Amino acid sequence: MLEKERKLVQKYNNIKVEDGGTAIASVGNDGTTNSKVDLSGTATTPGSTVEYNGKGYALFSKDNGEIDLSYGTFNFKRRSYWIFNRCRD
Q1: Please, what sign has the CA dihedral across residues 43, 47, 49, 50?
Q2: Handedness of CA 4, 8, 11, 17 (dihedral sign)
Q3: E-assigned strands of 1-89?
Q4: Which residue did the predictor score with more confidence, 29 or 88?
Q5: Which pick of 19, 29, 59, 86 has the fewest CB atoms within 10 Å?
Q6: Are the beta carbons of 66 and 59 closer than 8 angstroms?
Q7: Which strands sit side by side in the sheet containing 81-82, from one edge to the other?
Q8: What pLDDT digit, counting tens, does each position of 8-35 carry?
Q9: pLDDT of 48
């Protein structure tokens, strides 16, 4: 039996990427397997900090991939891109 979800929990980290292709990527499998990277925090405890300085996608998700940076900090510089295709409350 195949798992239908992959989850990586990396809360309360400082992630800094210089000249990389992407800082955080969450990619499912052709829409059949979900992927989630959890970098979130709470209203009283800040989430992770992601700093990206590159020419690619700072945050990238595809095929049911999800990145949760709720209550976190996100800084991007230079010619980086960030795209949100779905937002949740």
Answers
A1: negative
A2: negative
A3: 5-9, 14-18, 22-27, 34-38, 49-53, 57-62, 65-68, 73-77, 81-82
A4: 29
A5: 86
A6: no
A7: 22-27, 57-62, 81-82
A8: 788 889 999 998 888 898 888 766 778 8
A9: 94
